[in-house]
Amino acid sequence: MLFLVCSAASIVSVAPARCELACCELDADPHAVVVRAFERVRLIGMRVFGIDCGTEFTGYGVVEVDDSARNPKLRPLCAGAVRLNKKDRTPVRLLQVYAELSALLQLWQPEIVAIEEVFFSANAKSALKLGQVRGVAMLAAATCGLPVAEYAPLTIKSAVVGYGLAVKEQVQFMVARLLELDEAPKPADAADALAIAICHIHHAQTAEHMRR
């Protein structure tokens, strides 16, 4: 299996993104997000771009539903992290996140972006900085005309591990197992991004079964 640990820094030239805003509708239950774009999101062959926002490392991972086999399975395409320099000023750091994510979104052409919801933090300053990164990530998706689905940390862990209070090591282990990888992708932020993508696919499968 070919799995790329990629970096947006290696992308030299990127065509301008189309400014088409996709509309998304959230289910009444915030833990069971169902996204409806302009057309019904297809399940077979679905490609999801997961983003794990952070103030130092913002992980990303691309997962696709592979329907070439008899039984459809999850196929990882790419994973990595946007590494930010602590010495850079906030506007420069946010611009880097936006530029690299935009380049990756145009490169991998996903159908939807999945991102983690803001979790409660006792440190208001840290929560504010994380919120800025999330906003930039969502802006990159919207600029590329992609809908965004948000999932709570407990929901992501439950979907991947089966236990909402699982520790990071358990999540990383299950990500590697579900994607049939020899080991969990590094850095950990990349594995977390893949977990978010897997979470959306699982919820999309559940929503599809409920519609039948």
Topology of this protein?
Elements: E1 4-5, E2 47-52, E3 57-66, E4 73-83, H1 90-108, E5 112-116, H2 124-143, E6 148-151, H3 153-160, H4 168-178, H5 188-211
Parallel strand pairs: 1-4, 2-5, 5-6
Antiparallel strand pairs: 2-3, 3-4
Helix pairs in contact: 1-2, 3-5, 4-5
Features:
alpha/beta, globular, Nucleotidyltransferase, domain 5, 6 strands
What does this structure look like?
It is built from five helices and six strands. It is of the alpha/beta class. It has a single domain, classed as Nucleotidyltransferase, domain 5, CATH 3.30.420. Strands 1-4-3-2-5-6 form a six-stranded mixed beta sheet. Helix 1 packs parallel to helix 2, helix 3 crosses helix 5 (188-211) and helix 4 (168-178) crosses helix 5. The longest helix has 24 residues, at 188-211. The protein is globular. Mean pLDDT is 82; it is low at 9-40.
Distance between the termini: 33 Å
Cα Rg: 16 Å
- Largest beta sheet, briefly? 6 strands, mixed
Helix content: 25-40%
SS class: alpha/beta
CATH topology: Nucleotidyltransferase, domain 5
The tally of domains stands at 1
